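$ run holo --ligand "flavin-adenine dinucleotide" --emit tokens
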Amino acid sequence: MDFEYSDRTKELVEKLNKFMDEVIYPAEPVYEEQMEKAKDRWQLPKVIEDCKAEAKKRGLWNMFLPADPDSGDTHGTMGLSNLEYAPICEVLGRSAIASEAVNCSAPDTGNMEVFARYGSAEHKEKWLKPLLNGEIRSCFAMTEPAVASSDARNVECRIEADGDSYVINGRKWWSSGMGDPRCKVIILMGKSDPNAPAYRQQSMIVVPRDTPGIKIVKMLHVFGYDDAPHGHAEVIYDNVRVPKSAILLGEGRGFEIAQGRLGPGRIHHCMRAIGVAERALEMAIKRAKSRVAFGQRISEMGVTKAHVADMRMEIDMARLLVLKAAWAMDKYGNKEARQQIAMIKVAVPNISSKVVDRCLQLHGAGGVSQVFKLASMYAHQRTLRLADGPDEVHRDQVGRMEIAKYN
Ligand SMILES: Cc1cc2nc3c(=O)[nH]c(=O)nc-3n(C[C@H](O)[C@H](O)[C@H](O)COP(=O)(O)OP(=O)(O)OC[C@H]3O[C@@H](n4cnc5c(N)ncnc54)[C@H](O)[C@@H]3O)c2cc1C
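-- output --
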């Protein structure tokens, strides 16, 4: 593996760092102020659209989408490989608003990749195009309150054929992004044939957000944060009718798509998590240098140096593991790289949560307040040990695949 970033990546990282300094970091307090003053928390602060316009102008847009492995199609994007995108995504992770500003945020990135890889010409025209343009947003609905959804075979939401339509009935929760008024399309995973073999019972289907029968029950909180205006919704689907053409790839092929979708989604979360950890560490070091306790700068205390050293080593280890997974995805494909992807999905959120926790401690009580971003950073990093599958499931996969290598 070559440790040197490609010229394209170096150039984009430089441009992006400039964009972060000139646009994103100054926009963070504006975003917070606009959210605080908003009468309706479920409307997007205007500053995000300003940042998006500026990002487009600077050629920093849709950097996440690799060229289709079969057709080579990049859908008008830069077609960066996963390895080329990794350092860019890390920089984006430094700010909670950066990914959306450059149209590289979850769950849209995963959904766009699904439309690009598995969507029909109609899906591409109707959903992929406006998503790539940043005109609409989307959500992904797999998890259900009634069943252990880390085993997606349990998903009960029914997708039943009826004449030239499919009818959807069920209850989902943790549908992230559903609170955003610009969320216009849902990719839903449900059961189309309960009698088929276990991994052929599920399908993925495209549901326009404004279809009659979709009802938000409540917005869920994460450690007390509502995550507005993005949000995580519990949703009832009551006789939701969509045309037959809404099915993705074909009936019974939901797991096949999930494998394709969740790989890139997971690696993006991990790349951003490294950016979060880097920013927390930078903040903690600056804070420790600025404060004196017991006649000594906090940064000069032995225990601080030990913590900082451990964090430096852990972040660098995490980055190397992520780069290796990205490289494996590019070289061998998402399916072949699944052990590497599972490894980072366990390792990185654990490291980033631990790093943010120690940085929060170094800030004293301010660390748990709203004054610094560490409390929300911690809350978010902690959720990554559950979102897109809990640690235990990925650890099990890594172990199983490792043991299978030997007789
Ligand atoms: C912030 C956030 C955003 C999310 N966004 C989305 C989204 O946009 N769309 C969506 O569909 N879902 C989303 N999710 C849901 C997430 O993917 C699920 O919560 C996750 O897959 C686990 O499913 P579950 O909550 O049903 O846990 P369960 O399946 O009930 O599992 C509970 C626990 O059991 C243990 N366990 C499970 N399996 C094993 C095993 N094989 N070995 C050992 N222990 C095991 C683990 O400790 C696990 O945490 C989101 C979750 C969060 C927190």
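-- notes --
The mean pLDDT is 96.
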